[in-house]
Amino acid sequence: MTDIVVKTVEELKSAPEEYREAVGKLVISHAINELYGAQVFDEPAIALAPNPYAKWLTCRVAMEEYGHHVRFKQLGQQIGIPEERMMPGSAKKPLSIFEFPLKTWEEFVAIKLLADLAEILQVEDLLHCTFHPLRNLARATMPEERFHAQFGEDFSAELVKTPEGKARLQAAVDEYWPYLPKFFGGSKSKNNEIFRKWKIKQRTNDEMREDFVRRATEVAAKYGLTLPEVRQAA
Ligand SMILES: [Fe+2]
Ligand SMILES: [Fe+2]
Question: Is the pTM value of this prediction over 0.85?
Answer without folding.
Answer: yes
